[in-house]
Amino acid sequence: MYRLSHQRHGEWTVHSYPPVFDVSDRLVAGVPGGDPLVFQTLVERLTPPLQLLYVLHTPRGEADPGRYQSPPISLEQFQEFVETFASFLKGDGRFDLWAHSRTDDATVVWDRHNRVFAYGPLEQYTAALTALGFSRGIPFVPTPHAHHYRDEFDDAAKRLLQTYVWSQLPLQPEDVQ
Predict the structure, then answer these.
(1) CA 95 to CA 20: how far, in whole Å?
(2) How many whole angstroms from its chain centre is CA 69?
(3) Which pLDDT belongs to residue 22?
(4) Quick one: which H or E segment has residue 43?
(5) Are the C-beta atoms of 120 and 106 separated by less than 8 Å?
(6) Running along the chain, 177 residues long, what does each successive block of 10 average in pLDDT?
(7) Does the N-terminal peptide bond of residue 144 adopt cis geometry, omega within 30 degrees of 0?
(8) What is the pLDDT of residue 2?
(9) Cis peptide upstream of residue 49 (ω within 30 degrees of 0)
(10) Sign of the four-CA dihedral 159, 160, 164, 168
(11) How far apart (Å, rounded) are the C-alpha atoms in residues 12 and 16?
(12) 44: buried, middle or exposed (CB in 10 Å: 19+, 13-18, 0-12)?
């Protein structure tokens, strides 16, 4: 299961980034194999409480498109959320997922292209990714590419939206595919 594929020699194949990141005023990293551990590791550098923003840009009947904001949650609740929905987070491209700490004024975003953007404690993020075996490099989005939305994850998408009492906001122009 994978979120993103690309065309190689006329054939569609899974796209997996090498373990690389780039840092300027933010950190940008590829998520090899769509592994939720990359997102989770960076979010664990933030000071709770955390708020999640689930940006549902390509619904498949589970809810209306929109930005779904969680109530404040603990680090343990975040870890349980990732563990519960790991397969869905890894294998389906209908959403972007953000985590924010008001205390740190820091945000980590996992986008539909399997990249993570992190704003805030850049040195901590860099150290965490280096410990995971990442090195400096630029995670390029392949062209052409395709996003995958899987029938087998429709129930998980519904359950995810039942996890918290989410506040629904409209999509922003940059959210629309």
Answers:
(1) 22
(2) 14
(3) 98
(4) helix 36-43
(5) yes
(6) 88 94 98 97 98 97 96 98 98 97 98 97 98 97 91 96 97 88
(7) yes
(8) 85
(9) yes
(10) negative
(11) 13
(12) middle
Which tokens go with 175?
A: 């959210």
Q: Which two tokens stand for residue 23?
A: 């840092």
**Environment class of residue 155 by beta-carbon count within 10 Å: exposed (0-12), middle (13-18) or buried (19+)?**
exposed
Find where tokens 């990293």 sit: 29
Q: What tokens does 9 get?
A: 């020699």
Angle between helices 75-84 and 36-43 (to 10 degrees): 180
20 touches 135 (CB < 8 A): yes
156 neighbors 88 (Cβ within 8 angstroms): yes
pTM confidence score: 0.96
Measured CA to CA, the distance from residue 155 to residue 171 in angstroms comes to: 22
Nearest Cα to Cα of residue 59 among 154, 146, 152? 154
Cα 9 to the center of its chain, rounded Å? 28
How is 116-144 classified by DSSP, letter by letter?
EEEES-HHHHHHHHHHTT-EE---PPPSS
Judge residue 114's burial from the number of C-beta atoms within 10 Å of its C-beta, 0-12 exposed, 13-18 middle, 19 or more buried.
buried
